[in-house]
Amino acid sequence: MPQDRGPISSTVSRADLSAWAVLVLALSLIFLMGAVQLQRNHAQIKAEQQNRLQTQARVVAENLVRQLRGVDSALRGLRADLTAPSAAQADVVSPHRLNELGRAMPGVRGIVVLDAQGRITVSEASVLEGQDFASREYFRAPRERPDYTSLYVSPPFTSTRGVYSINLGIAVPDVHGRFNGVISANLDPEYFEIVARSVLYAPDMLVSVIHGDGKPFIDLHPARSGHGKDPAQHSASFARHIASERSETIAEDEDALTHDNRMVVFRTVFPPELDMDTPLVVSVSRSTREVYAPWRDDVRSLALLFVLLCISSAGTLHFVQQRRQATSHAANERQRLADISAEQLRGAAELQQRTGRLAKVGGWQLELATQQMTWTDEMYEIHDVDRQAALSRGVALSPYTPDARRLVESAMHEAIQHGTPWSLEARVVTARGRQLWVRTQGEAIVENGRVVRLIGASQDVTERVRFATELQAANEKLERLTVTDGLTGVGNRRLFDQKLATEWTRCARRGLDLGLLMVDIDHFKLYNDHYGHQGGDAVLRQVATILTQCVQRSGELVARYGGEEFAVLLPGSDMESASIVADLFLAQLAQAAIPHIASSTAAVLTMSIGVASMAPVATDQPAQLIRSADSALYIAKHLGRNRAEQAPAVAGP
Q1: CB-CB contact of 547 with 478 (8 Å)
Q2: Does the N-terminal or the C-terminal CB of the chain have fewer CB atoms within 10 Å?
Q3: Quick check: 639 and 604 in contact, CB under 8 A?
Q4: What are the backbone angles phi and psi of residue 250, rounded to the nearest 5°?
Q5: CB-CB neighbours of 494 under 10 Å
Q6: Comparing 30-44, 456-470, 596-610, which segment has the lowest mean pLDDT?
Q7: Are strands 644-646 and 280-287 parallel, antiparallel or unpaired?
Q8: Neighbouring residues of 538: CB distance < 8 A, sequence distance ≥ 6
Q9: What is the DSSP letter of 126?
Q10: What is the per-residue DSSP string for 306-374?
Q11: What sign does the CA torsion over 489, 494, 497, 498 have?
């Protein structure tokens, strides 16, 4: 016996090492598979949340741009009235006019006119007239750096009414082109807070609208009481976004107030056609703790499972060693170690099957010589196939739809002929009629220079595909809503701006004229007062229908420009052609004979039309065409309404 112990001990030692090696290898493989899946889940969650935050930031930014464009157009219209040569224009820029403009724009709290010394000359609030606001930044900036094309955006401040707000202003020149005052509009923070709150889809979301110098205008951060906080002092990501000069950046950064790490999207609002002196920045963020909470739960579950497996495996091997030391019979010892090793392998295989079910991943193998197909349990689950059913290559391919089957067969053919691996997503119909999307992957196994088998995996990715499809449909619906006026069904201001920019470039490239009609319903406020808001809404829809029926050519667009005003874009139309369309509008409206007994112009509803046309230049901006049509509209109203008037022809801005 003593002579046998040396070889027996050596043999048992080698068996111990082999068992430990197999266990470590199995555990490593399981750990690697779990880690890879967790990494994919983490990346998928991150991408999905970033996409949603980008969408919400874009919604807030686009609403803000629409308001900025409306305020800019109103201020420039007032400036045109102030600087018009006729002395009668002084009555046009009146407190009543400013009050009507402010009520027509939900994002504006008030509009004032200041002279060259900073005193308010016209205001909807008479108590402000005559007061000196020369020290206000929204007056000092235009006075010190007068630029009559710029829209000045003041830093947030507390107004005389105790409202924390931002002012938008333009400089006013005198007849010699020298600085002669400022027209300024005060933005309503309550309106923009409603817009910001409308995009919240999770309790931990934060939304801010920040001035370019770092001061917040709108800030839904619950930890910031009061105003005047400077995010640039607390967020390095905000400073990096400003320095990057990019329209949008995504970052993960620590909130200095709550020490909470957040995923944040910054989107700069700086439309080139407005020539703003300072940009605004929209910030939308979520707590990364909340974003990745489901992922951390998966990590803890898999970690616990892995720890239990390690403890169980180590305990089992320790038990084997103790039993080996208690016996001297080499044959029984080797058999016991072999049995234990097999048990460990079965345990590792079972765990691999469980993790496969968790990730909905199944494995398969095809022997080319016999065409014998082998599936793991999860493959049967995915395809709803009974485990007793005979498997073959044809049976494995039968769940795929015809188009998908051709793709998979082509991929298998390439793998067999050239050893090319594949990875693709395809639709299948299971044995129980369930329609799924699966990601199928495969590769060739080569022995002695030829392909002998194919192995691969299939994963049920139906939920991810469904989510991506629903997200795409939601984005398309949102896009449709953002370019259609909800009351009249014609294009809205956003669609008009997009179409104007596109047609401006196209007409400039092809050497075509571009016509524009600015249409305004006469005495619409009196109509509303007499017939009620429902009657006013109904007549807006009637007018929109009449305008739409009169424009038939490709590229022509009818859009609601704001309130009772419509814009009609006529690509390829010179002044004469555009005037013909305007006359057709007037004739069709007269034929409709919509009663308007409150009108001082006629007993039926009438409209005034400004007609403009120019040959666009690619290096210029289309704002001059809008200003030209607005000026013609003003002339039509001044000459008595119910008419169309042409603007002086110009070659470009």
Answers
A1: no
A2: N
A3: no
A4: -125, 135
A5: 18
A6: 456-470
A7: unpaired
A8: none
A9: G
A10: HHHHHHHHHHHHHHHHHHHHT---HHHHHHHHHHHHHHHHHHHHHHHHHHHHHHTEEEEEEETTTTEEE
A11: negative
Closest by CA position to 408, among listed 387, 385, 428, 388: 428
Q: Pick the residue with more confidence: 159 or 351? A: 159
What are residue 363's DSSP bridge partners?
A: 457
What proportion of the chain, given as a percentage, has pLDDT over 90?
Answer: 39
Start-to-end C-alpha separation, the chain: 110
Q: By mean pLDDT, which of 60-64, 383-387, 629-633 is the weakest?
A: 383-387
Residue range 571-583: mean pLDDT, rounded: 95
Amino acid of residue 376: T
476-491, pLDDT tens digit by residue?
666 666 789 999 999 9
- Write down the pLDDT at residue 8: 47
Residue 144: both structure tokens together: 């010190």
**Nearest 10 degrees: Cα torsion 286, 289, 294, 297:** 180
- Kindly state the average pLDDT of the residues 308-332: 70
274 with 168: CB under 8 angstroms?
no
One-letter amino acid at 476 equals E
Element housing 377 (H / E):
helix 377-383
Residue 450 CA neighbour count, 13 Å, CB half: 4
Token pair 């000359």 is at which residue? 121
For residue 27, what pLDDT band results from cuts at 50, 70 and 90?
A: confident
Q: Is residue 483 classed exposed, middle or buried when 0-12, 13-18 and 19+ CB atoms within 10 A define those classes?
A: middle
pLDDT, tens digit, for every residue of 73-95?
889 988 988 887 764 444 567 88
- What integer pLDDT is reported at residue 89 of this predicted model? 45
Token readout for 174 is 């005198």
Determine how β-strand 514-521 pairs with β-strand 607-614: antiparallel
What is the 3-class SS of 589-611, one letter each residue?
Answer: HHHHCCECCCCCCCCECCEEEEE
Residue 303, both tokens = 């970690």
User: Could you tell me the pLDDT band of residue 227, with boundaries at 50, 70 and 90?
Assistant: very low
C-alpha–C-alpha distance, residues 219 and 225, integer Å: 10
At 226 the pLDDT is 47
Distance CA 26, CA 19 (A): 11
How far is Cα 84 from Cα 78, in angstroms, rounded to an integer? 10
The distance of Cα 358 from the centroid of its chain, to the nearest Å, equals 32
